[in-house]
Write a structure and sequence with these properties.
- The protein is 32% helix and 24% strand.
- The chain is of the alpha/beta class and 274 residues long.
- It has two domains: 1-27; 31-273, Ribonuclease Z/Hydroxyacylglutathione hydrolase-like (Metallo-beta-lactamase, Chain A, 4-Layer Sandwich).
- Helix 4 (95-101) packs parallel to helix 5 (117-129).
- The longest helix is centred in the N-terminal third of the chain and has 26 residues, at 2-27.
- The radius of gyration is 19 Å and the shape is globular.
- The protein starts with a helix and ends with a strand.
């Protein structure tokens, strides 16, 4: 019986080690960008060449934990930077269980004023966690030692405690650069903010673009796409969602620019490796 348990323990140990080696080899020296399949919501994980983890939004429920466990090893339980683009439920709710299951080193938020029970819980948890809290503006930059650069493009100035009639337009817009590759993530920012970004001196050019506001027709304008000129766009939305995302008008705009579109509702989790 002892031999049997020894064999079982040995098998489990070897399996865990092999899994760790597999995930370690998978990420080493490359930038991984995962667009999680979290239904009608947003959640993006960036894994840097030195295995730093950046989680942007958490989707509408606990599904983000399943997605994280699908791409991380058992030993990876620290999110180095968590970003909340804006506190709508389909972006913030999934971050709460992540805060309960993972260590979180730093959090980037706008600090915008918004009455929502999940937002209150989130703010309490990041305070209890003792995470370093950054408030976003266009001077917020993160230079990582492995060559990854995170640049906040919007908001242009700190909007902590401000109220927005359209909360989508408080979204953090950020660009992640590594070597000669660039990824633009625009949260749910709508056409008003897109126009402001186009008129600003922001460098919007990117290979990969996460479609704004789940592919809504209130975003992803012609002028914005012209400024970004992406090769790929990823639309994060739920299958058969009530909002009819993505909108046909958005898909037509992408088509005009020859952008290859991937969708989490049809393609599941989407991964890019640079």
């Amino acid at each position: 019986m002892r031999k049997f348990f020894a064999y079982v323990f040995g098998f489990i140990l070897i399996s865990v080690l092999l899994a760790y080696l597999h995930f370690d080899k998978l990420a080493h020296g490359q930038l991984h960008v995962y667009f999680f399949d979290v239904g009608q919501g947003d959640s993006v994980l960036i894994k840097t060449p030195s295995d730093k983890l950046i989680l942007i939004d958490g989707g509408p429920d606990n599904e983000v934990l399943t997605e994280l466990n699908g791409v991380l090893s058992f030993f990876e339980r620290k999110i180095d930077l968590m970003v909340l683009t804006h506190p709508h439920s389909d972006h913030i709710k999934g971050l709460i269980p992540v805060l309960e299951k993972f260590e979180v080193g730093a959090v980037l938020i706008t600090g915008v004023a918004y009455k929502n029970a999940y937002y209150d819980v989130f703010l309490d948890k990041i305070s209890d966690e003792g995470s370093t809290i950054y408030f976003a503006d266009d001077n917020t930059d993160f230079y990582l030692s492995d060559g990854v650069f995170i640049d906040v493009l919007y908001p242009f100035f700190e909007i902590r405690d401000e109220t927005f009639e359209n909360l989508n337009n408080s979204s953090i817009v950020m660009k992640i650069s590594y070597k000669n590759h660039e990824v633009l993530l625009a949260g749910d920012a709508e056409v008003e903010i897109e126009d402001e970004l186009v008129l600003s001196d922001a460098d919007l050019d990117a290979d990969l673009f996460k479609a704004s506001h789940h592919g809504s027709k209130t975003a992803n304008s012609y002028d914005f796409m012209k400024a970004i000129s992406p090769n790929y766009a990823v639309i994060s939305c739920g299958l058969g969602n009530d909002f009819k995302h993505p909108h046909e008008e958005t898909l037509e705009t992408f088509s005009l620019f020859g952008v290859e579109v991937l969708r989490t509702d049809l393609d599941g989790r989407v991964e890019f490796i640079f």
